Amino acid sequence: MEKKKKVLIIAGSAGGALLIALIAVIAVLSNRPAAILGSSINNTLKDAEKIEVFKIIEDTANGGSVSLSANLDEYADDVKVDAKYYSDIKDLKGAFNMTWTEDDETFLQTDIRYNDKSVTMSAPEFFDGTYGVNLGKLEKNLPGSIFDPDEETDYSLDDDEFEFLLNLQEYVKNDKNLSKESAKIQKKYCTLAIKKILKYSEVSRSTKTITVGEDNIRCRVISITLDGEALANIGEDLINYALEDKELESYLTLAFSNIGFYTDTEDLVDDFYDELEATLEDIEEYRESEKVEIITDFYITSSSRIAEFNLTFKDEESEQELSLVLGKDISKSEEMSFFYKKVNDMKAEEISVTYEVKENTNKAFEADIKFKDEFERFYSSTGKRTENSKIKLKWNKKDGECEFKFDNDNDDSYVIKGILTEKGDKLTFVLTNIREDGEAVEKIKSLELTIIVDRNDPTPKVSSRYTEITTLNERDFKHLSGDIKDGIKDVIKDTLGW
Fold first, then answer.
1. CA separation (Å) from 335 to 292, 322, 369, 475?
2. Are 442 and 89 in contact (CB under 8 A)?
3. CA-to-CA distance for 40 and 34, rounded, in angstroms?
4. pLDDT tens-digit map of 163-219
């Protein structure tokens, strides 16, 4: 019994020691610069996605709409226009409709809808019914049609355009996968680049407290120093890896195939790899240079976010500095800044941008964006200049009054005023005034320009019944195109008097 007890104690002690050892190993591994950098970059990018403006854009692009309306009475009597675009990028769907009215009577109405299978269009004032193209049947319908180059009709496409349309359905399918593949490739090469940089560079760590706005942020600082030899090794490894990467080749083929006609996918892919191989030769210049040096400093918060990033680049021709200050959490930061400076024997350039939130409450939002541009020629006594400009944003969330004001050292001044309201998923902006150098721009108020952004507005379905354009004969297509041309002329004549 005693012996068994001792065995259990020893086993328990060994298990405990093993557990402590594993925890220590995990702690060491997770505290490596590669893991810290990778985690902080990833977290910062995720925080950026939470910024309200970006969230609105993303939501609207993937299941929302943007509409615009205006009163053109000052330009054409009693004419109003309404336009709306629906977007669903993820599912490759969209729609656009526009209505022109005169004395409250519609004289032009168009409706265009599309998805990954077909595109349709209706315009009662131009032609009867709905016309469209079935993308899935292009390969069947185009050969022998009036668009076939071999038919030599007035509407025959050239060989490149015809070939592109024959494969359009395949290109559309590729588009669905392109975004996902792009993110995958970017993540892969970003991770690889970090590993190579840390492999060939000098890395040091320290701690420092920085001040951003009213926040004092204690940071771990990872400093990375690279010389010409290191840069050459990194570039060589990355390019050699890319030259053998079949996954990259497949992605490039997918991406280049969707550019359009007058391009050859294989040629573009070959050109890309030719450029890589040429760059591989140029990289050797860095290996031989003794004056090339890159120093980067990553300031990382306790929650693994990048609060500040600094970079210095030196070579035989110039010295450059770059700084980006994001704060504790980019999605909530009330002060951010960007700085860039370049100096060589002939001149010095310096650019800085600062963003500062003055107020962000339930009642109001106010922020300033300041720009500073300095330039100096060392060989001229009058070669120095400094330009300052400023954008002020003000929004009273209670009554909706908002103002966008721009001014600079040259006494240029622009003010845009309007009413911005938010209700549910909708943002509505009504333009009320524009002033240039203190003078009101004429006819703005009467324009009644209204923009509505709806974050949740499903795209209308594509019409199921329509006349297939690719199967029309020459006579029918001539009548259709003629009706559209005449309709456009009538609209221009009625609205503009031309």
1. 33, 17, 10, 65
2. no
3. 10
4. 888 877 777 766 667 777 888 888 898 889 888 888 898 989 999 999 998 899 999
- Cα 427 to Cα 445: distance, rounded to the nearest angstrom: 20
Q: Are strands 364-377 and 467-468 parallel, antiparallel or unpaired?
A: unpaired
Q: Give me the phi and psi of 258, to 5 degrees please.
A: -100, 5
Name the H helices within 97-152. 138-141
Looking at residues 287-296, what average pLDDT do you find?
A: 81
Q: Where are the beta strands (DSSP E) in 251-363?
A: 293-300, 306-314, 318-325, 335-344, 347-360
Cβ neighbourhood burial of 406 (10 Å; 0-12, 13-18, 19+): middle
441-479 burial, b for 16+ CB within 10 Å, e for fewer?
eeebbebebbbbbbbebebeebbeebeebbbbeeeebee
Helix and strand element counts for the chain (H, E): 12, 21
d(CA 155, CA 146): 6
As a whole number of angstroms, the distance between CA 401 and CA 431 comes to 10
Task: Determine which helix (DSSP H) or strand (DSSP E) holds 13, and give its type and residue range.
Answer: helix 2-30
Pairing of strands 467-468, 130-134: parallel
CB 36 within 8 A of CB 28: no
**12 contact partners, CB below 8 Å, separation of at least 6:** none
Query: pTM (2 decimals)?
Result: 0.81
Residue 11 in this model has a pLDDT that exceeds 50? no
Q: How far is CA 462 from the centre of its chain?
A: 28
CA distance 80 to 450: 12
Alpha-carbon distance 221 to 302, whole Å? 11
pLDDT score recorded for residue 261: 54
Residue 364 parent element (H or E): strand 364-377
SS3 at position 382? coil
Q: What is the DSSP letter of 62?
A: E
Full DSSP string of 159-223: HHHHHHHHTHHHHHHHHHHHHHHHHHHHHHHHHHHHHHHHHHSEEEEEEEEEEETTEEEEEEEEE
